[in-house]
């Protein structure tokens, strides 16, 4: 997408607005599958939580991917998007037995990450195929909030509890067809990932009827020019070799599964905002925009950096700006960032807005959630309408109605 494409979208649909580049999503999918081309059976399950718009699910499913879901609502979205239930993995955390049972009835692959629910589910449904999520006790990820494989994490069954796990499986005679792990997001050290993979391989030896091994994802993407990222080609080469060796020793064909979210959609997304006010204080020049952490919370929640481009004046003289939102609390997107000179009503484009931006948006301050646009084959397609005031009122019950009841 060019700046002119983005400016035309902002003019037609207004701001703030999320825009996704279909070609970039496809190139990322092809890059990942190409990195693991030595593996005969490879399955990519897109992590729906990253960006759950139905059109995006259909686009990625069209490339050949299944879905990784973490709630029954995401499962239903996948089914509504036309994805076969056999291509959907359900990897929740801390959900009730009832929710697991309801999803299992849909024909979706269940992934269980705690001993209590495992025993209850296995006792009641011993024939239903179940994947087990282990916690390898490997610290990985770029932020403590997104590192989920360490010893204090709430995710997964500890590798130190494997004997207990095996007793449950033996006592219930339940059907374990997969083993899963996910260490965290923004993984840079391939050796750490490969170390965790060895723990998964070692665990898998105790299960004789496996069909797949799921290695999660968490691959880091670049957030600025020259930024470091996961070397997916090196990882693909090393892990493919090791996986093929393990599958041969295991004695039956196994499928290698990944569940990328950010890797597929992050770089494809742009978030466009309008500059409402340029405000100069005694020490700072603020560019105040028509959005806030209600639409893009990652800089405030994770300390993440999103490149900000002035697409209205890309060749202007660079100056230092603090880019802030219109929320009634501190919502700073960038501090003293060098950006081509900004004027009121310019359009700024935030990069890496495809993952965990709309999906974490809210109506805080009673603001509307923005529209979403998919740029595909040279054209912009509206895939979600901007919310209206009627949407804010839709599920509210006025006091007068209660008094007259």
Automatic annotation (TrEMBL):
Keywords: Amino-acid biosynthesis, Decarboxylase, Lyase, Lysine biosynthesis, Pyridoxal phosphate. It comes from the Bacteria. One of its GO terms (molecular function) is diaminopimelate decarboxylase activity. The active site is at 328 (proton donor). Substrate binds at residues 298, 302, 329, 356. GO terms for biological process: lysine biosynthetic process via diaminopimelate. The modification N6-(pyridoxal phosphate)lysine is found at residue 49. Pathway: Amino-acid biosynthesis; L-lysine biosynthesis via DAP pathway; L-lysine from DL-2,6-diaminopimelate: step 1/1. Transmembrane segments: none annotated. Pyridoxal 5'-phosphate binds at residues 218, 356. It is an enzyme of class 4 (lyase). Residues 23-266 form the Orn/DAP/Arg decarboxylase 2 N-terminal domain. It holds the Pfam family Orn_Arg_deC_N. Residues 18-354 form the Orn/DAP/Arg decarboxylase 2 C-terminal domain. The keyword Metal-binding does not apply. Its EC number is 4.1.1.20. Belongs to the Orn/Lys/Arg decarboxylase class-II family. LysA subfamily. Homodimer. This is Diaminopimelate decarboxylase. The lineage of its organism: Bacteria, Pseudomonadati, Bacteroidota, Flavobacteriia, Flavobacteriales.
């Amino acid at each position: 997408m060019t700046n002119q494409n983005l400016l035309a979208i902002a003019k037609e649909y207004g701001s703030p607005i999320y825009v996704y580049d279909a070609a970039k999503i496809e190139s990322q999918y092809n890059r990942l599958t190409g990195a693991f081309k030595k593996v005969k059976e490879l399955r990519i399950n897109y992590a729906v939580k990253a960006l759950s718009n139905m059109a995006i699910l259909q686009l990625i499913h069209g490339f050949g991917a299944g879905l990784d879901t973490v709630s029954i609502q995401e499962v239903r979205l996948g089914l509504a998007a036309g994805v076969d239930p056999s291509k959907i993995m359900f990897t929740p955390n801390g959900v009730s037995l009832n929710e697991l049972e309801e999803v299992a009835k849909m024909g979706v692959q269940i992934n269980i990450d705690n001993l209590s629910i495992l025993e209850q589910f296995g006792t009641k449904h011993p024939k239903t195929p179940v994947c087990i999520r282990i916690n390898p006790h490997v610290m990985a990820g770029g932020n403590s909030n997104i590192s989920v494989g360490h010893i204090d994490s709430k995710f997964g069954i500890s590798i130190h509890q494997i004997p207990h796990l095996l007793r449950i499986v033996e006592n219930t005679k339940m059907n374990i067809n997969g083993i899963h792990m996910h260490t965290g997001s923004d993984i840079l050290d391939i050796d750490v990932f490969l170390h965790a993979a060895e723990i998964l391989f070692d665990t898998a030896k105790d299960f004789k009827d496996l069909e797949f091994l799921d290695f999660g994802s968490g691959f880091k993407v670049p957030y600025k020019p020259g930024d470091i990222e996961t070397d997916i080609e090196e990882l693909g080469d090393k892990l493919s070799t090791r996986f093929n060796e393990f599958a041969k020793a295991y004695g039956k064909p196994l499928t290698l599964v990944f569940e990328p979210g950010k890797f597929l959609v992050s770089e494809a997304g742009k978030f466009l905002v309008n500059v409402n006010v340029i405000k100069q204080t005694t020490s700072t020049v603020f560019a105040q925009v028509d959005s806030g952490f209600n639409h893009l919370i990652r800089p405030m929640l994770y300390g993440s950096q999103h490149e900000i481009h002035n697409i209205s004046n890309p060749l202007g003289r660079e100056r230092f700006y603090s880019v802030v939102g219109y929320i009634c609390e501190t919502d700073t997107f960038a501090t003293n960032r060098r950006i081509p000179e900004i004027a009121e009503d310019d359009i700024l484009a935030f990069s890496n807005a495809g993952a965990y931006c709309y999906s974490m948006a809210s109506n805080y301050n009673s603001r509307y959630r923005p529209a979403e646009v998919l740029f595909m084959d040279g054209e912009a397609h509206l895939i979600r309408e901007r919310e209206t005031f009627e949407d804010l009122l839709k599920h509210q019950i006025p006091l007068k109605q209660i008094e007259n009841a």
